[in-house]
Amino acid sequence: MNLPKIHSITKKMFVGAVGAFLLLFLLFHMCANLCILRHDDGAWYSAFCHFMGTNWIVKVFEVVLLGVIALHILLTLWLVVTNRMARPQRYHERPRTKTHTNSRFMALTGILIFVLLIVHFCDFYFVKLGWVKGEYMVKTEKLINDDSGELLQLMQYADRNGFDGAALVANIESQAEEFGFQPNSEELQLFIENIRNKASVIDIILRAEKEQNFSQDHKWVRHLTYDERNTLRRVMPESDPEPDFYFMAREKFKHAYMVIMYLIFFVVVFLHISHAFPSVFQTFGLNNYKYNGFIEVLGKIYSWVILIGFSAVPLLVFFGL
Description:
Layout: H1 8-33, H2 43-54, H3 56-86, H4 106-123, H5 125-129, E1 136-139, H6 140-143, H7 150-161, H8 165-174, H9 186-211, E2 220-224, H10 226-235, E3 242-243, H11 245-252, H12 256-283, H13 292-318
Antiparallel strand pairs: 1-2, 1-3
Helix pairs in contact: 1-3, 1-12, 1-13, 3-4, 4-12, 8-9, 9-10, 12-13
């Protein structure tokens, strides 16, 4: 197996730089997650997710972040493989060094984090991409936005006659000749298709009104299904339905097995970063006998803050707080 020849120190510096970036991101991600604990019907957290999902700078950053995570994994594996290739015969006895205990398990904890990260992406990020089904929401003003007034007229007509979407389409189709259309004409088909699209939106609005699926300030229509999300993206692309991450997080963490899985995830992250934090300083030569103690303590404080901050969300939600 021939790998590109790059000095081990260079590879370590790449890993360290990428690791430092991820350490900063973890702190940012933790602070954002704590918004879930606010009992404001998701106002803060939904506003944060809306900003993160619509700002083009953030969208570019998401791609960069995913690239950085992949780069960190690949560089670390590359470093492990090349180091083992450089020493094909293992020591008969483990040398007595001052190596931090967690450093011996960095590759293992890294692999576990990667596996659990895929699960986390399936729970949340892949929902945003539409690869995994979730619950969605849309701004009320976008859902009822119709400059022609046609949607409002159809809603009023359906309400007066007690029609749902299918009954509305059937009723209007049966009266097509009264609207001046020739039977089976292309114009009639286009007209009916337009009514059918409007009717599908009306069904979504009617269900929301019946089940009171609105945010407290009525700015959002919530609890849209995956099929309703796809309907809106097809019929009203400008409505731009979004995942309801606040609701999904609170629902997910009502289940004990999900809480336990995420707590394991956070403990593994804790073990990984408790060594990664001082390693970043060591990689760039920023540690010496004067500062080592301070860096070690700072790393422990940071690791515990991350562990407690992330763990607080599933635990407190599970206990109804």
